Amino acid sequence: MRKTMKGRPPAVALIDPKYPHNVGAALRACSCWGFGQLWWTGCRVALDVPHGERLPREERMKGYRSVELTRDDQVFDRFEPGSVTPVAVELRPDAESLVEFEHPTDALYVFGPEDGSLPKSVRLLCHRFVVIPTHHCLNLAAAVNVVLYDRRLKRTLAGLEPLGPARDILRERHGPVGLA
């Protein structure tokens, strides 16, 4: 029997994604932006990670080992009550624009499937709604990257997170970097 993982915010949840390559690209985004967990629900992307099944190419790189990857239809139940703020990334009239959005420290970013919206049962569990103000819909993996980047940018500008490893890499390659 598989051990049930405990949720640790901040994290990302994909609700019934359709394509394995988008789960893989979301895994890559989580790794790049320092998120420790990626959850997904549904049976359209089925793989048994503990038994060696893999996502497309994205999971095969070493950096992604730091992200726990779990398919679980009860993802909201894996977080202690009151320990997480579910944020639905969804096109809704009452959604906050990502431009002005203040990211909760304990966020669980919830993304719907590529071919639909979040079901009502999931929306009812979300405390906040945010919309990415684009002219057209983004690919699922692109939307994950945009939201996680926005979080990092705002937290860095507020002094809550360092600039990250990119600064150290630039310093190694090019000497002192003019970043605060």
Assign the structural class, choosing from mainly alpha, mainly beta, alpha/beta, alpha+beta, or little secondary structure: alpha/beta
Average pLDDT for all residues:
87
Query: Could you give me the name of the CATH homologous superfamily?
Result: SPOUT methyltransferase, trefoil knot domain
DSSP helical segment count: 4
CATH class: Alpha Beta
Order of strands across the widest beta sheet?
3-2-1-6-4-7-5
Low-confidence parts, pLDDT < 50 over ≥5 residues?
none
Number of domains: 1
**DSSP strand count:** 7
Cα-based radius of gyration, to the nearest Å: 17 Å
Distance between the termini: 49 Å
H/E series: EHEEEEEHEHH
Walkthrough of the structure:
- By secondary structure, this protein is of the alpha/beta class.
- Helices cover 25% and strands 16% of the residues.
- It contains 4 helices and 7 strands.
- Strands 3-2-1-6-4-7-5 form a 7-stranded parallel beta sheet, with helices on one face.
- Helix 1 runs parallel beside helix 3.
- The protein is globular, with a radius of gyration of 17 Å.
Question: Which helices and strands occur, and which strands form pairs?
Answer:
Elements: E1 11-14, H1 20-32, E2 37-40, E3 68-71, E4 85-89, E5 96-97, E6 107-111, H2 120-123, E7 128-131, H3 140-157, H4 165-174
Parallel strand pairs: 1-2, 1-6, 2-3, 4-6, 4-7, 5-7
Helix pairs in contact: 1-3
